[in-house]
Amino acid sequence: MKRTVPLMIVMVGGILMILQYFIPHQISQTVLAYYTDWTPIILAFALILGVGSLTRIHSHKIRRKSKNWQYSWAVLIPLYLMPVLAHIWPQSLGGGMDSPSIFHFTFMHVQVSIQATMFSLLAFYIASAAFRAFRAKSALATLLLLAAVVVMLGQVPIGALLGKWLPETGLWILRYPNLAAKRAIMLGVGFGMLATNLKIIFGVERNWLGGAGK
Amino acid sequence: MRKNWIVVPALMILLLLPALSVAQGVDEILTPAAEEQLEEPDSWLDTPGAVTVRDKENDAGDKLVVSFELPADTEGIFAYNVYRRFAGEVGEDTWSLIEVIPAGEPTEFIDGYDPEFPVEPGVLYEYRVASATVDGEEFFGPIFEADTVSAGEIYHTGKTRVLIAAGMFIFLIFYYFGKAQRGAKMYLRPIAGIEAIDEAIGRATEMGKPILYVPGLSSIADVATIASLTILGRVAKKIAQYQTPLIVPNRDPIVYTVAEEVVKQAYLEAGRPDAYDPDSVFFLTTSQFAFVAGVNGMMMREKPATNFYLGMFWAESLLLAETGSLSGAIQIAGTDAVTQLPFFITTCDYTLIGEELYAASAYLGREPKQIGALKGQDACKAIIMTFITAALIFGIIDVVANTHILDWLRDLVTSPIIE
Description:
heterodimer, A: mainly alpha, 7 helices, B: alpha/beta, Immunoglobulin-like, Rossmann fold, 3 domains, six-stranded parallel β-sheet, five-stranded antiparallel β-sheet
C-alpha cells in the first residue's frame, strides 16, 4: 500500500499530463491548472520542513559546541530576524532608499551587497577557468585555444580593426560547429528526459520514492 | 408704383453682392457658411466595413479570429479601434475596447489573448470597429453580430506529428524494456565519469573525509533533479557501505524532503541504518548565491575529498566547481544545462554531459529494465540520425539537381513552433 498508492498517483498524473498536451479543450486546461496549483501549496509546507532542518542542524552544532559552531549564529540570527522585521513589526517594511527602514536597510545593504559580491566573483573565476582550459597541451587543446581567440576577438571592436575575417570567422564558429554540438547535446537530453519520465511514470525507476520505493 | 421702383434695384443689389464680394476678395459675409461646407468632408473619416468572426482552431474555446474590411478611403485614419460586447446588450457603456490596430497593419487578429477581456466559450458577441484619428476621435462603423461562438477542441490537429513521434519513441523504449527483461545481452558504452564514482568514494573513505553531493539548484519539477536524486540513492548506498560521511545541501525544500528519504533508504538497504546521520541532508537556502556561499564555506572548512554536482545548475556552477578545485577535492559533475557544461568540463575531473546524467542511474543499477530504457533512447537517436543524414543527402541533391526534396522532408517531419 505504501508503495502502490504513490506509484498509482504518479502513473495516473503522468498519463493525464501526457494526454493533456494533445487536448486543448478547456476541461484539459482546468485539469492542468488544478495540478499546477498544488505546487506552491506543497512548497509552502516543505519550506517549513526546510527551515526546521536548518534550525535543527545549527542548534545541534551550537549545543554540542561542534567545530566552527560560532558560524551557526550567523545563520540562525538572520534566518529569524528578517521574518520578525517583516511580519511582526510591519512598520519596518516602510521607507525607501532615502529613508530606509530596518528591514529595507538590512535587505539592501547586507543581503543584496553580499549576493552581488558572490556574483562578481564569477568574473575572476572565469578568468582562472579560461586560463586552465586554454593551455595548449595537445593538438586539440591548441585548436580550442585558437577557436576561443578568434571568437573572443570577433566579439570586440578591436577584432574588426584587425581584420574583417575575424568577426566573420568567429560568427561562423558560433553558428555552425558550436551550434551543431549544442543541438546534439540537447537532442540527447530530450531523449534522456523522455526515457526518465517514462521510467518514473511506469514505475521502472523508484529511487525517488525513498523508503516507499522498495 | 413707388413700391415697384424700390424692389427692382433691391433685387439687383442682392444679385450683385456675391459677385462683388468674390471679385474683390471680400468674402467675410459668406465665409462661415462656406468654410463649414468645405471642411465637413475632411473631418469625417471613412468607417470600416463588415466584421467577420470565426472560431480559432486547436484552442480551449477561449479565442476567436476577428477580421474586418478596410474602409474605401483610409486617408487620415491613424488606427482602428475594435470594440466587443455580449450579443443583445444595449448602451454605449457595454462596449469594451479589445484591440487597437494601427493603420496599415493586418486587419485580422485573435481575440481572447488579453486576460482583461477573456472570450468565454459558447458565448455570442457583437463587434464594431471605429476609424480613429491621431487625436483619438472615433468614427464608428456598423455593429456586427458574430455568426459563430468559440468552442474548445478535444484534439490539437497541429500536434499529430508530435503524437506519432512520441508514440514511436514510447514503443521503442517499451520494446527494449521487454527485450532486456527477456535476458538479452546489451552492450553499454563505458562512461568515464560514472566509472569514476567508485574510485571517488573510495578516495574519500581512505582519506577519512566527507563526500559532498549537490543535487542541483532546480526544483523537483526538473527532470535533471529527479535523475540526480536517483543517482544520489545509488551513491549513498555505496557511501553507507564504506561508512563515509555524506553532506547533501539542498536549495529547494521539496528536493530536500525527497533527498532525505532517498539517503535514509539507501542506508537501510546497505544494512547500515545506524550509520545514517539525520544532519547529513539539509536545506540551506532558496537564494542562489547565498546557497553558493554556504556550500563554498563547507568546502573550505570541511574539505570534502569528493564533490558531486549532479542536476541543474546556472551561474553558480563555476563558483562551486572552482572552489572545489581549490580545496583539492576530486570532482564529478553532470548537467543538462548546455551553457554550464564548459565550466564543469574545465574545473571538474569528470563531467557527465547531457544525457549521460540520465543514463547514470541505469549504469549504476545495471537493472535490465533500466538498460532497456537506455537502448530505447539509442534507437530513438538512430532514427533522428537517419533523418539528419537523409536531410544532408537531399540538400546536396537539391543543389546539384535543382529539386526541392529537402522541403518535402522538412514538411514531413517538422511542425511550426508558433501557430
